[in-house]
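Supplementary notes for students who missed Thursday's class. We covered one full example, reproduced here. Read the sequence, then the structure, then the short commentary at the end.
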Amino acid sequence: MACKEQIQSLTEETTCSICLDFFTDPVTLQCTHNFCRSCVDECWEKDRYFCPECRHEFPGKRFRINRALANLAEKLRKLNLAIQEQESKIHCEKHQEELKLFCDTDQKLICVNCVVDLEHRGHSFLPLKEAVEVYKVKLKSSLEDLTEKKLAVLDTENVQKRKISEVRKQASSLRTRITSEFTKMHQIVTEKEQRLLRDLREEEERIVEPMEKNLREIQEKLNSIEVELSKLQEQMEQKDALMFLKEENYQSTRCSDDHVTFSEAVGSLSIEKFNGPLQYTVWREMIDNIHPAPASLTLDPNTANAMLILSEDLTSVRFADSAQSLPDTPERFDFMLFVLGSEGFTSGRYYWELEVGEKTEWIVGVVRESVDRKEGFNMSPESGYWTVGLDPRSGYFVVTSPSEIPISLSVRPRKIGIYLDYESGQISFYNAGNMSHIHTFSQAFTERIFPFFYPGVNNNGKNSAPLTICQFKDH
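Structure (token representation):
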């Protein structure tokens, strides 16, 4: 075989100077320079014929076909392809033979002599083409699995972004609410306003920071998966069977060990701290500057069960030893020991407090005007009740669907504060002694809402004290 230098020299002689590839249908011009026929045709202008190399012009379109050069170029093209193919073949390091088999047991390329070696005895072997097909199927499965993982990460990313947006929107709404409330007393309560705004910012960042960190981790994982997808795609497009199998073993190992798991960082703002009766909270500090004072409610005697006794000023209620003779009004609760406030609400924000003292049983809250007052009842929000209470046996609870849920209070409340925001559908309960939050219901109201009271039975004299509405005009 001719040496490389000779082949290189012949290759240069059989290469067109225009397309820089082996001659195709070569022609020789009058100046003896050779070009591909199509190349020189593209260079010639209308009615102007010249040599693209020496720029010599000719009187007409004159050239001769160089068949000898065409044959030589074709032979050199085939020779170069054969050399490249020979150079691209990988040989067995031990036997210096061409690698024609794939050891499925050891996951490596081998030659025919390796089959009888002790280290491969009893192993399973595949021809290269069959091995390529088998592992292309495996690689396709890995590609599909990684694509599914990418979609899962994208879903997680979108959920995390949506939650961050919700928290930001919620924080913005609360910020507006706080500013609006404190504008009414801005000169007196500037310090209080700024303190709460600072707390809100800290609360917001406390919640969003781990969520954004989780989002960054999600995006980093997504980038990593994108890289792996790109590598797998390149491998799928690998035409060389030997290089494909050699790379596949490394890639499939990485794919099989890759698992996408995320702990979703979630959280919510402490709405109650910032969206409660803000002016009343400040009133605790600056009582003389609150206008108007929290609502002073009275009880509606037409709704009271016959076993309940109301005070003359209609501000307290207690259990009676025996039933009273009362007119049977449509508004009256016949079956349960309930009584409602005399005023209902269809708009606005209200706050009132109830004295529960050392009572061992009570339930307070709000109800829809349309609740059933003559038969049995279900004290759930679906039935029109939003309440919290104390049971002498099980302790404090909130009534949700379908049953009571116990709640733990660090301090026994002697007064219960109730905050109603009709437009936003919020009913919040507080320990009025320190304004700590107890529970909040969220509900879209569609009818009149009334304050609700249940003083509980006497419980052998342990619960004989009345349930009393606090009258703020006396402060």
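Commentary. Residues 166 and 268 are 9 Å apart (CA to CA). The two ends are 114 Å apart (CA to CA). If anything here is unclear, bring it to office hours.
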